[in-house]
Inverse folding.
């Protein structure tokens, strides 16, 4: 399966790069060398900030407990027997 996936990637990437008729060749020089604007950088930063905020809120309401800290409290049958 892994070999088939690598072969699939090879068949997608290599013939595309060997083609001399890429549409970028007839483009404006501003499009060939791309650099992000401040709007794109701010949208990226806002996306990361929203993810961090939602993660913080989720951790607040959904407790994160390590399995090793649970000890014998996880098995109700052991509590009845002891």
């Amino acid at each position: 399966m892994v070999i088939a996936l690598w072969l699939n990637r090879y068949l997608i990437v290599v013939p595309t790069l060997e083609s001399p008729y890429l549409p970028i060749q007839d483009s404006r020089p501003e499009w060939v060398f791309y650099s992000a604007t401040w709007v794109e950088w701010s949208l990226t930063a806002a996306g990361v900030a929203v993810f961090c905020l939602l993660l913080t809120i989720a951790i607040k309401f959904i407790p994160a407990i390590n399995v090793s800290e649970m000890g014998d409290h996880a098995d109700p049958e052991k509590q009845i027997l002891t």
Summary: The longest helix spans residues 38-61.
